[in-house]
Amino acid sequence: MNMNDVAARGLVLLGCGKMGSAMLAGWLRTGLPPTSVYVIDPHPSDWLKAQGVNIGGTLPENPAIAIVAVKPQMMAAALPDVQVLGNGDTLVISIAAGTAIATFEKMLGENTPIVRAMPNTPAAIGRGITALIGNAQVAPDDMDLAEALLLSIGQTVRLSDESQMDAVTAVSGSGPAYVFHLIETLAAAGQAQGLPADLAMELAKATVGGAGQLAEDAEEDPAQLRVNVTSPNGTTQAALEVLMDPESGFPALLQQAVAAAAARSKELANG
Ligand SMILES: NC(=O)c1ccc[n+]([C@@H]2O[C@H](COP(=O)([O-])OP(=O)(O)OC[C@H]3O[C@@H](n4cnc5c(N)ncnc54)[C@H](OP(=O)(O)O)[C@@H]3O)[C@@H](O)[C@H]2O)c1
User: By three-state DSSP, how is residue 134 classified?
Assistant: First the structure.
């Protein structure tokens, strides 16, 4: 399957909130005809109503794609709407955190091709990263198509095993919140050194945003970039001695934080 099949056979979007809207905006921008999109959502937003897509009507009989973008707790209520598409050649893509492929196989039929994907919130500005894994029914070109659809909200990576999803959730899924907290605490620390709050916040946001972009763009790895800006006995070194302390610094703290998130992800997946 490819994007022409999606345009011809149709794409069903189950749940069009923050993530669903971000994806839809990307597909329409890259040329998917709005008339090929069928949205199911109990409260369509004004933005959605203005896009020219089909909302709440009859679904095509054999759409190329069904994307599940409802909250995990709404899954049981929402999935019956697309149950008729199971066990056929509609590729089902779920972006719901913590809902295992086996759960979809149980609800839609075990012959259903299913891709489970884990995006993150920078998807809202096209700067997300989404990890993907498919079941055995997903043909290689269907995996390429799932990846192409998710490229509308940022970068993609493929996993080799679904069990990696807990660690992915703990690193990139929940990760934006860790970085937001880094910004908050860096700004508060600047304030403690006598800066006005708004100035400290402006410095902290731009520093994290700029350093993140630099780390993505640079040929050197982040460790080398750090070394490059650390003069012997300078100011950066003084701070890094605190932050890089193996017991009280970032290394131990982030190990613990990511381990806690991964453990919680496992618990949630097991109900
Ligand atoms: N946001 C993230 O950073 C993030 C990251 C990774 C994964 N995800 C996953 O992405 C999924 C969507 O998240 P989101 O942030 O986009 O949530 P959201 O903004 O709440 O969007 C979910 C949408 O689904 C609608 N909905 C509820 N019940 C439905 C039903 N029975 N049938 C069809 N649509 C229904 C909701 O409508 P109402 O609002 O009217 O109830 C809402 O518009 C979640 O499963 C989440 O785990 C999100």
Answer: strand
What are the C-alpha distances in Å from 142 to residues 31, 64, 129, 248?
19, 10, 19, 46
pLDDT of residue 268: 83
Give the tens place of pLDDT for each residue, 155-185.
999 999 999 999 999 999 999 999 999 999 9
Rounded Cα distance between 143 and 114, Å, is 9
H or E element: which one contains 257?
Answer: helix 250-269
Residues written for the chain = 271
Which atom number of ligand 1 is nearest to the Cα of residue 72? 45
CA of 94 to the centre of ligand 1 (A): 11
Closest to 268 measured CA to CA, from 14, 72, 15, 69: 72
Q: Can you tell me which atom of ligand 1 is nearest the CA of 75?
A: 31
CA of 18 to the centre of ligand 1 (A): 7
Q: What are the CB-based long-range contacts (under 8 Å, 24+) for 103-112?
A: 103/75, 104/68, 104/79, 105/135, 107/79, 107/83, 108/79, 108/82, 108/83, 111/86, 111/87, 111/137, 112/85, 112/86, 112/87, 112/88, 112/137
Q: Relative to the CA of 96, which ligand 1 atom is closest?
A: 45
Predicted TM-score (pTM) of the model is 0.93
Identify which of 16, 19, 107, 174 to mutate to test ligand 1's pocket (most ligand atoms within 8 A of the CB).
Answer: 19
Q: Partners of 13 in the beta sheet? A: 39, 67
Ligand 1 centroid–CA 15 distance in Å is 6
Does residue 144 surpass a pLDDT of 80? yes
Residues 240-251, mean pLDDT to the nearest whole number: 96
**pLDDT at position 271 over 70:** no
